[in-house]
Amino acid sequence: MRAAGRIVAAVLSDLEPMVQAGVSTRDLDRAAERMIRDAGGVPTFKGYNGFPASICASINEEVVHGIPGNRKLNEGDIIGIDCGVTYHGFVGDAAVTIPVGKISEDVQRLIDATKASLYAAIEQCRPGNRLGDVGNAVEAFVAPKGYTVVRNYCGHGVGRAMHEDPQVPNYGSPGKGARLRPGWVIAIEPMVNLGNYDVRVMSDGWTVVTSDGLPSAHFEHTVAVTEDGPQVLTALDIHAAAP
Ligand code: MG
Ligand code: MG
């Protein structure tokens, strides 16, 4: 799972400098698929329930599951890129939200808070803690800043399949829910909105957008629960400290 996660991390890291005005989401998808296959992996998303691409590319008010296509990035956009890789039968799943050129301070703060909320949740991934502690860490971090947490979508267990039990919501009550055990691997993926938490699915059947049209940010890591604490499997260096 570390090997799968490392490929995901490398792909997201290599895509980041490509995120520039004028680049299409299809360009990013093609580059991602090439990198995944060159590394000996398989793009987990491609064909998943009929999804046609190797990454999800979600721009501005698109929360998750955007389908790559002809749309070109504009200066001031933000793009969420979600990537899954299967390597020797195991899956890694991670996402980042990246600004396109110069973005507004409001939206940069949303991105920063969403990323920090992910690391607050990762910090809770210790044996004996509960899923409610993980979800609460996200919401407790972002809610005081006036942001909302998407409730209709959540994180998940990861293993030989991308989506395994348990569900990992980005909200919850401390001390409630299933107890985390060493050997668990979960994807934690806060989706945080600048406005209301309400979302809907577009007519393409995939793209999730905020109902109020305001921007949303998404970060995700695949995290192993160990006796020694959390290990972020979808990092280039799993021993690196949280930013
Ligand atoms: Mg993902
Ligand atoms: Mg996921």
Q: TL;DR of this structure?
A:
The chain has 243 residues and is α+β, with helices and mostly antiparallel strands. It is 24% helix and 27% strand. The protein has 4 helices and 15 strands.
- CATH structural fold name: Creatine Amidinohydrolase
Total beta-strand segments: 15
**Spatial ordering of strands, largest sheet:** 8-7-9-14-15
Gyration radius from CA atoms, angstroms: 17 Å
Query: What CATH architecture would you give?
Result: Alpha-Beta Complex
Q: Write the CATH homologous superfamily.
A: Creatinase/methionine aminopeptidase superfamily
* Uncertain regions spanning at least 5 consecutive residues: none
Taking the alpha carbons of the first and last residues, their distance comes to 22 Å
Structural class: alpha+beta
Strand content: 25-35%
Structure description:
The chain is of the alpha+beta class and 243 residues long. The protein has a single domain (2-232), classed as Creatine Amidinohydrolase, CATH 3.90.230. Helices cover 24% and strands 27% of the residues. The chain contains four helices and 15 strands. It has helices at residues 2-15, 25-38, 105-122, 131-142; strands at 42-43, 55-59, 62-64, 78-87, 90-99, 148-149, 155-157, 164-168, 185-188, 191-193, 199-201, 208-210, 216-218, 221-226, 229-232. The strands form four sheets. A five-stranded antiparallel beta sheet has the order 8-7-9-14-15. α3 runs antiparallel to α4.
Search tags:
single chain, 243 residues, alpha+beta, 24% helix, binds magnesium ion
